[in-house]
């Protein structure tokens, strides 16, 4: 071991070892910093989205929950709120003891302190501005929302009747954070202290209520995973992703964009390590020969080099982890004003993964050529003309592939994602190598045609271009690696601009922000005339809505007990919303079967997600119970629904002829600007039974996440870009030895500095141009696949990005190449020739 450490100390003085350590450190730093920062940003997004739930996680049930759940949550350091939610008539008391003339069915929620765990309750000050309500509810007091205050004509300080209680209204609130849940269960809200429930006598035997335990804290996810398998019948674990499909979709896309940055960092790490390793191993050939000459066996030589590489890898990985932590801290500081709350604390898992990434990649790619290096024959000390040992051939390719697969699986924690990523890398490497060889073939034809020799004063340029053909294999590898690096950087820029813009545009500014439900058939025309037209000039579309419970599948009765999946149990336990549309709704896409015609009967189109959960497919027959009447339909198509469109969407659509005789109400969605103060009062005045659901808070939360993703990605991709440029520089300088030797030889034979300079410029311009062309072609294919296959958004061509990428690749390659070889113009040729001898 002492010998290994002495050799490592000596090696660190050499340029080749420093380049290898630098390349590995930059690779680890880029992977670690991007992953760590992305992890913190994702945590911030989830925390903000959790405001819609009022907590990080919630357990609910139709019976009181076991007390040990709250005890266990508190033992894990979590904040806990217990609440009970139920419907009740709320009225104004009359002085003569009779019920007041105004009574409203309300959503009553009794809570314990602290509430809420995420977000704040907002009230209005004397100026009408929203301010947070920070006091705890005291016994005998309630908070009512503005809708209930308006309906009952009450204000802060008045009393209302809630069961047997006559609490005082402490404040009228404008908004509470918990806006998650089913739109159709919405009603005016009352918040009361949990200790007042018993005195109200509203929850007797047989009463319908939902009992809930809400938790928040760093270990909320751990608590959820621990409790989920232990939940009893009627109990369920809920998160904002499950309750709000549109928020779930937004969070998933945000995580995909941030995950892409980490994947690009891994790809750049592979390119940097492979190229730096190639140069370093070439230098170690003489050391291996010396070991064998002095009597060391192949195994002893191999163990020495493996130990040496392991120590170098440890040094580089530790340096990379330190750089990663500093870089992510810098990124967090740079975006400190972009988020509504402080970024969550940095976890160590991304850094540990980055450390492991460096070790696995270096050893995975190094061991095969080290095995070949250890087999260097001792006679090579006397015969330098003997060919160098190979790089490991098939073994190198196999181990390298498995190393990349292991790293990607560490990052994604998903075998399928890892396999797809590695398969994509292999395809890209094969395509890049093939294109590089094709470009070299074209150069060879140009050299052999004699046209370059006839260029007169430009013969130095001709010589530089011809150099690429003389080192055919080396040049092909360099073009392929540079091209893949350029491809990654262009893809990073493309994802940041075009793809992300496409996602932002998928949530238009005029998306519906108000839902009107419980509209009766004879009210549709009148309400439609009161609503503003959409930007396309069309009037609001009203959809019929029927409540039905799934009772049989393919003639077999079903209950929640017939399913193992908790989501499936909940779906069977509840009623579905059935509707009809003569044409396929705008936010829907058929993925299996054919959409029905309006004249058909007994058929249904089902949302594909719920179909997978219930294990249903095209051709299956299902039966619903609608107000005691059985409705049998056959599934003829499956639809993919864009839940983040904020339009009226349904799990199940049936023909108008089937829905016509069933009891139904209607629903519509409309966009109303904040400045519109007349439409909703007019609607409520014309149809007091209509419930107006305001989803602008959810939309604002989604838009906030989208905007913050955009800003965070600016910094994430900027860091990835810097790491990529360092990788390109490493790629160029890692293959400079042969050029330096050739240049020294030309100077010895009388070549002038200007001729050598022209030859180098020509060589690097051609190399950079070839890599840039390869990178642009690869980036087009990669970004198209990302847009259409991964992110499921529209692919928009961006010639500007491609042209800028090509020119930047050419310029950067020229600059890096010149910086790596210019010293040979001032170094005595004899010194370079002795080093290469």
What distinguishing features does this structure have?
837 residues, alpha+beta, 25 helices, 3 domains, elongated, six-stranded mixed β-barrel
User: What is the total tally of β strands?
Assistant: 22
- Give the mean pLDDT: 77
Main sheet overview: 11 strands, mixed
Radius of gyration over C-alpha positions, nearest whole angstrom = 34 Å
The helix content is 40-55%
**Net shape:** elongated
Which segments are poorly predicted (pLDDT under 50) over 5 or more consecutive residues?
Answer: 180-185
Oligomeric composition of the shown chains: single chain
Task: Please tell me the total number of domains.
Answer: 3
End-to-end Cα distance: 31 Å
* Percentage of residues in strands: 15-25%
DSSP summary: helix tally: 25
Which class of secondary structure composition applies to the elements? alpha+beta
How would you summarize what this structure contains?
The chain has three domains: 2-46 and 249-505 and 703-836, no CATH class; 57-238, no CATH class; 514-694, no CATH class.
Describe the structure.
The protein is an alpha+beta fold. Helix 2 packs antiparallel against helix 8, helix 12 packs across helix 13 and helix 21 packs parallel to helix 24. It is built from 25 helices and 22 strands. The radius of gyration is 34 Å and the shape is elongated. A hairpin with a 5-residue loop joins strand 2 and strand 3. The longest helix is centred in the first third of the chain and has 39 residues. The protein has three domains: 436 residues, no CATH class; 182 residues, no CATH class; 181 residues, no CATH class. The strands form two sheets. Strands 1, 2, 3, 4, 5, 6, 7, 8, 9, 10 and 11 form an eleven-stranded mixed β-sheet that branches.
């Amino acid at each position: 071991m002492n010998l290994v450490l002495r050799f490592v100390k000596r090696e660190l003085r050499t340029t080749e070892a420093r380049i290898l350590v630098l390349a590995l450190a930059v690779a680890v730093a880029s992977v670690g910093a991007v992953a760590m920062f992305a992890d913190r940003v994702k945590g911030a997004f989830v925390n903000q989205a959790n405001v819609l739930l009022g907590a990080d996680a919630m357990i609910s049930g139709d019976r009181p929950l076991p007390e040990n759940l709250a005890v266990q949550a508190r033992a894990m350091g979590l904040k806990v709120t217990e609440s009970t939610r139920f419907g009740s008539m709320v009225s104004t008391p009359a002085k003569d003891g009779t019920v007041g003339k105004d009574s409203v069915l309300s959503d009553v929620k009794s809570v314990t302190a602290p509430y809420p765990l995420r977000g704040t309750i907002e009230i209005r000050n004397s100026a009408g501005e929203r301010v947070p309500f920070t006091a705890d509810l005291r016994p005998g007091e309630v908070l009512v929302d503005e809708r209930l205050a308006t309906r009952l004509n009450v204000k802060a300080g008045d009393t209302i009747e809630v069961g047997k209680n006559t609490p005082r209204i402490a404040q009228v609130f404008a908004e509470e954070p918990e806006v998650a849940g089913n739109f159709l269960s919405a009603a005016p809200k009352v918040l009361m202290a949990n200790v007042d429930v018993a005195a109200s006598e509203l929850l007797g035997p047989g009463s319908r209520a939902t009992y809930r335990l809400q938790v928040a804290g760093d270990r909320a996810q751990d608590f959820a995973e621990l409790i989920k398998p232990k939940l009893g019948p009627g109990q369920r674990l809920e998160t904002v992703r499950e309750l709000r499909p549109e928020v779930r979709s937004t969070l998933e896309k945000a995580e995909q964009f941030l995950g892409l940055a980490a994947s690009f960092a891994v790809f750049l790490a592979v390119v940097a390590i492979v190229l730096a390793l190639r140069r370093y191993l070439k230098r170690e050939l003489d050391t291996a020969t010396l070991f064998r000459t002095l009597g060391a066996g192949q195994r002893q030589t191999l163990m020495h080099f493996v130990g040496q590489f392991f120590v170098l890898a440890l040094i580089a990985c530790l340096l990379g982890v330190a750089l990663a932590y500093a870089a992510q801290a810098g990124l967090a500081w740079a975006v400190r004003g972009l988020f509504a709350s402080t970024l969550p604390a940095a976890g160590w898992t991304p850094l540990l993964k980055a450390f492991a990434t460096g070790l696995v990649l270096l050893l995975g790619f190094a061991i095969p050529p080290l095995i070949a290096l250890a087999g260097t024959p001792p006679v090579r000390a006397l015969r330098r003309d003997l060919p160098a040992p190979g790089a490991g051939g098939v073994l190198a390719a196999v181990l390298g592939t498995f190393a990349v697969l292991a790293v990607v699986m560490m990052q994604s924690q998903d075998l399928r994602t890892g396999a797809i990523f590695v398969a994509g890398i292999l395809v890209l490497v094969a395509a890049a190598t093939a294109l590089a060889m094709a470009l070299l073939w074209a150069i060879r034809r140009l050299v052999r045609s004699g046209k370059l020799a006839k260029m007169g004063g430009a013969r130095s340029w001709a010589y530089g271009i011809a150099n690429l053909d003389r080192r055919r294999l080396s040049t092909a590898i360099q073009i392929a690696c540079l091209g893949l690096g350029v491809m990654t950087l262009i893809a990073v820029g493309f994802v940041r601009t075009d793809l992300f813009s496409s996602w932002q545009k998928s949530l238009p500014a005029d998306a519906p922000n108000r839902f009107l439900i419980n509209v009766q058939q004879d009210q549709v025309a009148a309400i439609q005339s009161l609503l503003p037209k959409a930007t396309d000039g069309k009037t609001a579309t009203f959809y019929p809505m029927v409540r039905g419970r799934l009772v049989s599948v393919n003639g077999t009765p079903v209950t929640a007990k017939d399913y193992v999946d908790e989501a499936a149990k909940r779906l069977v336990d509840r009623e579905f919303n059935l509707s009809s549309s003569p044409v396929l709704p705008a936010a829907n896409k058929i993925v299996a079967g054919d959409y029905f015609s309006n004249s058909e009967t007994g058929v249904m189109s089902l949302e594909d997600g719920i179909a997978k959960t219930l294990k249903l497919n095209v051709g299956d027959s299902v039966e619903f119970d609608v107000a005691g009447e059985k409705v049998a339909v056959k599934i003829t198509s499956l639809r993919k629904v864009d839940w983040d469109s904020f339009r009226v969407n349904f799990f199940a659509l049936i023909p108008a002829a089937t829905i016509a005789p069933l009891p139904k109400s209607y629903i519509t969605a409309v966009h109303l600007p904040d400045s519109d103060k007349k439409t909703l009062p007019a609607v409520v005045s014309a149809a007091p039974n209509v419930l107006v659901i305001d989803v602008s808070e959810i939309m604002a939360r989604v838009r906030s996440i989208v905007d913050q993703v955009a800003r965070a990605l600016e910094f994430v991709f900027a860091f990835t870009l810097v790491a990529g440029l360092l990788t390109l520089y490493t790629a160029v300088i890692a293959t400079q030895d042969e050029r330096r030797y050739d240049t020294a030889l030309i100077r010895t034979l009388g070549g002038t500095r200007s001729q050598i300079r022209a030859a180098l410029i020509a060589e690097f311009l051609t190399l950079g141009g070839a890599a840039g062309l390869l990178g642009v072609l690869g980036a087009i294919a990669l970004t198209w696949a990302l847009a259409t296959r991964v992110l499921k958004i529209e692919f928009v061509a961006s010639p500007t990005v491609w042209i800028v990428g090509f020119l930047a690749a050419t310029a950067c390659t020229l600059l890096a190449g010149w910086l790596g070889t210019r010293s040979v113009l001032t170094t005595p040729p004899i010194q370079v020739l002795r080093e290469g001898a």
